[in-house]
Each structure stands twice: as C-alpha cells, then as structure tokens.
C-alpha cells in the first residue's frame, strides 16, 4: 500500500511536470473508479493544473477550469494503486503491464503530449477518483486525523490521540482517522524503532514510551521521505521495500540485535517484529 513518504515524492514528481499544463483528455477505463458525478469529469478538459499535493496517502490535483473554477481531483490508491508516467502518452488504451489501467490523463504541454496512467494491480481494484470543489468533500479526507509529519504536530497532540484508547498500537497507527498517512509497512518500522510490541494497547503506554514512540514515528517517516527524494515513480516502491528493516523480513536477522524477525498474523493482516527488541523475547500467538 502506498504510504506518505512515497506518495509525497510522487506528488513532488507530478507537481514539477504537470503544473501549468492543460488537461487535454481524461479517459476513465473502469467506471467504478470515479466516485463523483457532479461536477462532471468532462469539465476538467481545457483546465490547467495549478499544483499537485499530498493529503495523507492520497494525491490532490488542483485544476483551474473554465466553467467551474478551481476543482480538486482526489486520487486514493487503495492497496495496489499507482501512477505510470509517460513523457509521450501512448495513443491506445491498454492494460498497464501487470496492473489494470483505471484512467489515463493526457496533457497539452508542448508538442510531446505527456500524460500519466492511474493503475491498480490488486484483485479488487480499489483505486478511487473524486472530482470535488474542496478536498473535504471527499469523505475519506474529511475524516482524516492529523498528519504526523506536519511541522506543527506535537508530542502533546500525539499523547492526546493515544490517551484512553483500548486499541492495539499497530492498529491505531494505521487508523487514518487517528493519524493520517501511515500503513502496514511503516507501522512495523516505527514500532521496531520505538522498541514496542505491536499488540500493546495505546492506553497502557507510559509517558516515556509515548515519547519514544513519537520520536520514532517522526524519524522513520521524515527520514523515509528524505530518502525517496528524486526517485522516479517507477522505482519508488522498490526503494521503499529495500529500505525496510523488519517489514516483510520474516526469518531474517534483526539489524539491531541480531535476533530473528518473526511474524504475527491477526484479522487477515500481518505484522513483522523482533521479539528481542520489542516483546522481551515473547513470541506473539496468531
């Protein structure tokens, strides 16, 4: 699943290449991906992209249209969605490699006709597109908690989110209504860096553990964001996976203590953790 560090660099890449470009064509190949009907997607044609930004794990394309003013195209990638950039967009509409082509946007920026595809490699095709007047018109955006990478996000605010929550800390880190932008991979990395079990309840954390978790969360996310800078979209996911220390590393050696990384399966999901570093040697039962 795309998470905030990779989506941030994807936003940087697209912002640099699409700002001030006019939208020439928009083809939605899988109708269920488009979740809004008003304003109609056709109103984007001829509009100019004024910027691309990240909202949690989503992209926000701001488009200055002729008839509807500034509109926002919010793309939520789901579990397996992504962007495929074309310096010269193909003339036909085909499957995008191993992924399904969900939508294609062509731009009028010079004679080359660049553009990008929105793709989804998952079984359920969960990528969604909303065309709205304001980002908060998208329910998933309106419900978001604070972004933990924001400069103004404080440890006190974080402690307030955790206080009284009888929820396992890994699940809470991934809860977008509590904290925006963290998914399965970085929650594992954060908890390993903080030396905390994925199953401990948020409400049970001591003040020292909250401080440790806050510091680890900020460091993991901001360091990953900096490390992805300048990496093209086609290489971002591989760069992310190569840098992970525990996530998807079951059976490998912990880079901190030299122990063995284990997996804990719950509710159809999985967490990777180091028993020595995180659970006082205890193996979690699935």
From TrEMBL:
Pfam families: Fapy_DNA_glyco (PF01149), H2TH (PF06831), zf-FPG_IleRS (PF06827)
Keywords of the record: DNA damage, DNA repair, DNA-binding, Glycosidase, Hydrolase, Lyase, Metal-binding, Multifunctional enzyme, Zinc, Zinc-finger
PROSITE patterns with a match to the protein in the record: FPG_CAT, ZF_FPG_2
InterPro entries: FPG_cat, FPG_N, H2TH_FPG, Ribosomal_uS13-like_H2TH, Znf_DNA_glyclase/AP_lyase, Znf_FPG/IleRS
Domain FPG-type: 245-279
Cross-referenced Gene3D superfamilies: 1.10.8.50, MutM-like, N-terminal
PANTHER family: FORMAMIDOPYRIMIDINE-DNA GLYCOSYLASE
Protein name as catalogued: Fpg/Nei family DNA glycosylase
Organism: Microbacterium pumilum
């Amino acid at each position: 699943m795309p998470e905030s560090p990779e989506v941030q660099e994807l936003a940087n890449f697209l912002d640099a290449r699409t700002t001030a470009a006019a939208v020439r064509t928009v083809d939605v190949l899988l109708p269920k991906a488009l979740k809004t009907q008003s304003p109609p997607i056709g109103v984007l044609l001829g509009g100019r992209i004024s910027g691309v930004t990240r909202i949690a794990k989503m992209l926000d394309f701001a488009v200055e249209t002729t008839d509807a003013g500034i509109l926002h195209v919010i793309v939520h990638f789901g579990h397996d969605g992504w962007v495929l950039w074309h310096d010269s967009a193909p003339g036909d509409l085909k499957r995008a490699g191993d992924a399904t082509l969900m939508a294609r946007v062509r731009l009028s920026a010079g004679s080359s006709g660049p553009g990008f595809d929105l793709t989804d490699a998952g079984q359920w095709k969960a990528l969604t597109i909303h065309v709205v007047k304001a980002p908060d018109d998208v329910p998933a955006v309106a419900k978001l908690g604070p972004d933990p990478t924001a400069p103004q996000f404080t440890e006190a605010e974080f402690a307030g989110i955790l206080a009284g929550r009888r929820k396992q800390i890994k699940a809470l880190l991934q809860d977008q209504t509590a904290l925006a932008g963290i998914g399965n991979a970085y929650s594992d990395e954060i908890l390993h860096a903080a030396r905390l079990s994925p199953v401990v309840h948020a409400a049970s954390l001591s003040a020292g553990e909250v401080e440790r978790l806050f510091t680890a969360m900020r460091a993991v996310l901001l360091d990953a964001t900096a490390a992805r800078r300048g990496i093209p979209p086609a290489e971002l996911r591989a760069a992310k996976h190569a840098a992970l220390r525990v996530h998807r590393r079951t059976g490998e050696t912990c880079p901190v203590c030299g122990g063995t990384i284990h997996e804990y399966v719950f509710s159809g999901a999985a967490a990777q953790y180091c028993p020595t570093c995180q659970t006082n040697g205890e193996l979690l039962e699935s």
